[in-house]
Write a structure and sequence with these properties.
By secondary structure, this protein is α+β, with helices and mostly antiparallel strands. The protein has one domain: Lipid/polyisoprenoid-binding, YceI-like (Lipocalin, Beta Barrel), CATH 2.40.128.110. It is built from 4 helices and 10 strands. It has an 8-stranded antiparallel β-barrel with strand order 1-3-4-6-7-8-9-10. β6 and β7 form a beta hairpin. α1 crosses α3. The two termini are 20 Å apart. The N terminus is likely disordered.
């Protein structure tokens, strides 16, 4: 049995290195978004192994929301990204180290009003022209309750990587219990200091603290 599992991992790693596809988002290939040195190949192999074991959940872009909100002296600014992909290597209910990866296309950001949107996409904030992608890769997962967890990882924004901690709630979206669910809702929130990521525009008007939030539907991948 040990030899079979070892052979499976070798095959999965070979598949990764040769560029064969594993869809982590709707119609997306993990290799196209996360390879080329963006994510360590051993972490990608973990995701592939989870898919083989039936513990990979893919983010469903069409029924998910990834965004942020920040206060300013004029109004509260809220933004949503419309293009993102990723997944979670997770066996809900078990005390495992669930691996999570999310890639966001920064230019897919939408806010209310063209002027505000242009400002937030500009050099003082996301600078989408020079930094087209936002990446989160987890390095720790800890259950704090039956449906709550703390997700630790590294956020890369504007080419700067900093550690962040998300508070996470997981809910089954079908008739199964969480540890047997085929579809789950994952809500994750954290707060960052935008100056830590080089976002130093309009400091007199826009608050330094930015709330990041995700509410994503994740569907169990079937091999």
């Amino acid at each position: 049995m040990h030899m079979i599992k070892l052979l499976q991992r070798i095959v999965l790693t070979a598949t990764l290195l040769t560029g064969a596809g594993l869809a982590l988002g709707e119609g997306s290939d993990i290799c196209s978004a996360f390879r080329d040195g963006k994510v360590n190949s051993s972490l990608l192999a973990t995701m592939l192994s989870a898919a083989n074991d039936g513990h990979l959940y893919r983010i469903q872009q069409s029924s998910s929301r990834v965004g942020f909100c920040v206060d300013s002296k004029l109004s509260r600014i809220e933004g949503n990204f419309t293009e993102f992909q990723g997944g979670m290597a997770l066996n809900p209910g078990d005390n495992d180290n669930g691996q999570t990866m999310v890639m966001i296309k920064a230019n897919s950001l939408e806010t209310e009003g063209a002027i505000v949107e242009g400002m937030v996409k500009g050099k003082g904030f996301f600078d989408v022209e020079h930094y087209p992608e936002v990446l989160f890769v987890s390095n720790g997962f800890e259950w704090t309750g039956t449906d709550k967890a703390v997700l630790k990882g590294n956020l890369t924004l504007r080419g700067i990587t900093k550690p962040v901690i998300f508070n996470v709630t997981l809910t089954s979206l079908d008739d199964n219990k969480l540890n047997k669910a085929k579809s789950i809702l994952v809500k994750a929130t954290t707060t960052i200091n935008r100056a830590d990521f080089g976002m130093e525009g309009l400091t007199a008007l826009v608050d330094s603290k930015v709330n990041l939030c995700m509410s994503v539907e994740a569907l169990k991948y079937k091999t």
